[in-house]
Amino acid sequence: MTTVYIVGLLLITVVAANIIHLLWPVLPLAIYQILAGIMLSILPIDTHAIVLEPEIFMLLIIAPLMFNDGQNVSFRQLSQNIRQILSMAVGLAVVTVILVGSGLKLALPQHFTYALAFMLAAIITPTDAVAVKSLTTNVEMPKNVNETLEYESLFNDASGLVLFSLATGTLTSGEFSLGHGVLTFLYVFFGGIIFGSLMGWMLIALRTTLMRTHVDIGSIVIPINVMTPFAVYWLAEEMHLSGILAVVAAGIVHSILYDQLRLTSSRVQNATTTLWNIIASLLNGFVFVLLGVMLPEVVSQTLTATILKLALLALGLYLAMSLIRYLWARFKLVDMHSTNPKRDGLLLALGGIHGTITLAMAFSIPVLTESAQLATRNQLILLAAIVILISLTVGTLAFPRLLPAKTKNYTNDEFQDQLIHTVQYAIDELSQSPENKKEQALLIDQLSSQMTLTFKINRNVYDRLASQARGVEMQTLAELRENGVVTAKEEQVYNRMIGRDALMHSQHGLFAFLRIWHYRFKWKRLSHKLHKHHPQTFAQLQKIHDDKTIQDKSKAVRQQYFDRLESIFNMTMTDVNEFLDEVQTPDNVHEVAMVRRMYLNRQQTLDRFHSRGEMDINVLRTLAIKAFQDEHSYVQQQAAAGVISSDLANALNEHISNDQLVCIQSFED
Questions:
Q1: Is 239 helix (H, G, I), strand (E, B) or coil?
Q2: What pairs with residue 405 in β-bridges?
Q3: DSSP H or E stretch at residue 443
Q4: Nearest to 347 by CA among 154, 155, 139
Q5: Which parts pass through the membrane (predicted)?
Q6: Domains by residue range for the chain, with CATH
Q7: Dist. CA 255–CA 248, nearest whole Å
């Protein structure tokens, strides 16, 4: 139970940090997560229970992260940039580990053995693409530099992890042979790649076969995909191969064969992508929160003088690695197709930001003997953490000053306004057809949700517009009564319906809800008393209710009754829509959309009481496809006429496509 409690706390902490970053994105997300972990450590919980065993940490955290990175890579771009990838992910990683490790040993021989120095160098060498993206969200990073950093972060993780494993093995055993080390490296490195590729191919073949023979079995193939990195990593490690390289290779195989999966259920693909995005986000957050939880304990157990020494050493290590990266680019050891070598070299150096993998390897350090001053696990973790914090801080300060800010040629308000016009156009086109009114009502309500779920409304403006619209509606109803179009009874019933809507959509909706349930409870009590004290009368009423002839007549009367109400609704809505068109301005367009949706909900309610049978799903699907095609057409027309920019059109089309997928899937549920 303790484990469940701790995992729950970590989840809550990660989500809380994500929310704060969303509301106040001043600092990188990783910093918020570290601070949240520090706050969590203040709580009266046993922080020792949060630390995972190194093997479990690699299996549960690193393996799925590396697999997800592998399956998200484009194999076409991968093959086109293979020399660039080998240069950064293998050549630069190995050179950095050798130079930094040797420098540590020569500079601090009393604190570091070669094995310990190379292990620390391997820990701080890998870069983190997620951390880079979090720092460059609001700036224009050159495409060539951005791609170089992304591919490097994928594959230098594997290189760093293999070197880390070799250094750790040497450190714990105390023995190292160059020839044996080279053979072991080749076996572990290439064996992991081959094994992972085979496993990935077999699992892809299994998933594809299942999805071809059974149209939609997401409950089976999605868990298979999620369990793949754990199974591949565990089996590879059992064979003494690189589990990390194996899961990367399996992920890349998934990317290579992804075209085959695109021909299968779109729902499965969409659900798989969404699930992996959530998993990756949570796992990345877990690592930084764990760092925040451990920092206070590590710092409290370390002397202030030692912390200062570690900070200076971390700064020196960061500067050394940044210099190596800069020189690697300036001497053109990596071809970035650069038009500004000096600028791109500096960006490449600053882009060497460390994050999840560095922390994960630090947490995976075995418990070491305290034979040297720095040879303690906690101090090495603290050293790696300081390197990460330095790289994050430097990137946060440097990128906005070196790169131009990202700019959009449209504002969020313009996007919302155009989205409302687009949806309203589709609704108007849909409403012109005199057929399938029931399906139309349901679809119109779905479409109208596009206009109301992505912005905040002014409640006072909405209440005023809704009250004015009801006034127009009641005035129209009175005129219909004077002209003899509706009867006094129909006017009375419809006025009660207007009053009920006013109550339910006011700021006192909760009290109205409770009042409705109060009356329903009273009705049930009255029915119970009638059955208990007047059983004969109740039996007669039940017999009348069960009589088919009377039942049919009742249905016919009920049908006619709601037909009349719908007819009155359609007549009053003509004037209401004219009023809303007249009062709509750029300042109240959201509130007007909400009022329109209120009336659309009433139309759907009236239609539901017709009891004309179930919705025709095929008709709903056809109407939905036509409606979303109308939305895309409207956006294309606006772009062609120069009313909206191409960027705004692309953003609208992407939003519409996502809404279409969700809408169509809702009809299948």
A1: coil
A2: 139
A3: helix 437-452
A4: 139
A5: 6-24, 85-106, 112-132, 184-205, 217-236, 242-261, 273-295, 307-327, 347-368, 380-399
A6: 2-402 (1.20.1530.20), 412-458+611-669 (1.10.132), 462-587 (no CATH)
A7: 11
Angle at the Cα of 117 from the Cα atoms of 116 and 119, rounded to 5 degrees: 65
327-385 pLDDT, tens digit per residue, is 999 998 998 888 888 999 999 999 999 887 887 788 777 654 444 434 477 788 889 98
Distance CA 362, CA 168 (A): 11
Residue the block writes with tokens 């540590």: 104
**Torsion region of 221: left, alpha or beta (phi above 0 gives left; psi -120 to 50 gives alpha):** alpha
Which pTM was predicted?
0.68
| Other beta carbons less than 10 A from residue 13's beta carbon | 23
**What tokens were used for 315?**
């700064």
Cβ neighbourhood burial of 217 (10 Å; 0-12, 13-18, 19+): middle
Classify 435 as helix, strand or coil: coil
Task: State whether residue 242 is helix, strand or coil.
Answer: coil
Give dist(CA 389, CA 386) in Å, integer. Answer: 5
Among 154, 97, 153, residue whose Cα is nearest residue 124: 97
pLDDT tens figures, 283-296: 888 888 888 887 88
Contact 85, 152 (CB under 8 A): yes
Query: Distance from CA of residue 285 to its chain's centroid?
Result: 13
* Spatial distance between the Cα atoms of 3 and 644, rounded to a whole number of angstroms: 53
Which residues, at least 6 apart from 420, have a Cβ–Cβ distance to it below 8 Å? 451, 589, 590, 593
Q: Interior CA angle at 293 toward 287 and 296, to 5°? A: 135
Rounded to whole angstroms, the Cα distance separating 431 from 437 reads 8
